[in-house]
Amino acid sequence: ARESELYALQRRALRAIAPASAMQSSTDVSAPVEGDGVGNQEDDAEAEVAGCTIELHAAEAKTAGVRLREAELQTELRAAQATRRCHANGAATPSGEDEEFVASAAWRRAREVAAELG
After folding, report:
1. 13-17, 62-66, 114-118: which has the highest mean pLDDT?
2. Exposure string (b/e) for 26-63, b if CB count within 10 Å is 16 or more?
3. Looking at residues 25-46, what average pLDDT do you find?
4. Residue 81's closest CA among 89, 6, 45?
5. Residue 111: CB partners within 8 Å, gap ≥ 6?
6. Region entry Disordered: which residue ranges (predicted)?
7. What are the residues whose beta carbons fall under 8 Å from the beta carbon of 44, sequence distance 6 or more?
C-alpha cells in the first residue's frame, strides 16, 4: 500500500510537470527561458511533491505508532487470557469481572486501532 501511495504521488508530480514541459518551446528543459513561468511551475510541482512526501512520512510514523499500540494491546489481551486460564485452573487471580473488563477494554481499543488503520 505504501508503494502505491508513492507511485500515485510521483504520477501527480509528473502530470503537474508535463503541461509545463509541453508549453515550453524546443529550448532545453533544464534551462527554462527567463520570464516564461515554466521554471516557477516546475518549482511549484517540486514543492508539492516535497509537501506530499512530508505528509506521507507523517502518516507512516502515525501508522507505526498505531501498530506499536496494537501490539501492546495484544500483549495485554494475552495477559488477560492467561490470567483467566490460571483462574480456571484454581490459581489465585483477580475476579472474573475484572478480567472481563480488561479483556473487553482491550478488544474495544483493538477495534479502534483497526478502524484507524482501515
Report:
1. 62-66
2. eeeeeebeeeeebeebbeebeeebeebeeeeeeeeeee
3. 62
4. 89
5. none
6. 19-46
7. 16
For residue 37, what pLDDT band results from cuts at 50, 70 and 90?
low
Nearest residue to 117 via CA among 71, 52, 49, 51: 71
31 DSSP assignment: S
- Joined together, the cell numbers standing for residue 16 give 503537474
Task: Encode pLDDT of 77-97 as tens digits.
Answer: 888 888 888 777 765 545 666
pTM for this predicted structure? 0.40
Closest-CA residue to 5 (of 50, 39, 56): 56
In the numeric block, which cell numbers belong to residue 76?
495485554
Q: Which of 28-37, 62-71, 106-115 has the lowest mean pLDDT?
A: 28-37
CA angle 69, 73, 75 (to 5 degrees): 115
The domain locations on the chain are 2-117
CA separation for the pair 40, 51 (Å, rounded): 16
